[in-house]
Specification:
The chain is of the alpha/beta class. The protein has a single domain, classed as Isochorismatase-like (Rossmann fold). Helix content is about 25%, strand content about 20%. It has a six-stranded parallel β-sheet, sandwiched between helices. Helix 3 packs parallel to helix 4. The longest helix is centred in the N-terminal third of the chain and has 14 residues.
Length: about 180
Amino acid sequence: MQISFDTTDALLIIDVQVDFCPGGNLPIEDGHEVVKIINPLIHLAQKNGAHIFLSRDFHPRLHPSFKENGGQWPTHCVQDTPGAKFHPELIIPDNLVIVSKGTRFDKDQYSAFDDTGLHVVLKKLNIKRIFIAGLALDVCVKETALDSVTYGFKTFLIKDGTRAVTQESGDKAISLMQQKGIEVI
């Protein structure tokens, strides 16, 4: 499928942050490679009037997902640290919206929709279709895509614009998303 955007579309870029790229605290193998896929999509979305959203993990220091606090992940994307910054080569237009998640002390938030109000903003903007790319395919990308469908949006996963924690869990995530009606392009 050739991707085309219009004013009722949203490009939702998930967690393309330093800590999820090589050299970060929770690196996804070749995570930085998504930037070369996503940047042209940002240009295309801008050119055609689509809305652009960037989600980010933005954890407080005592976040429950960290191993030291009983969670399953190494400390990552701590608020106001270099690891929480977006990848330095990612284009960040002035008119995009940043969605911070993982900010709660009582739970993790893998989906960009989880307690962020994102679905309310998208409905107000009359968004019909959501195109999703980013990191990691089998965690935050998957959960965001599943919530997108639940909220009634036609949802597309831009497969080349994602990377998984593991190949096996990435394959399972894609299969589940397809079962739920997400179109993989």
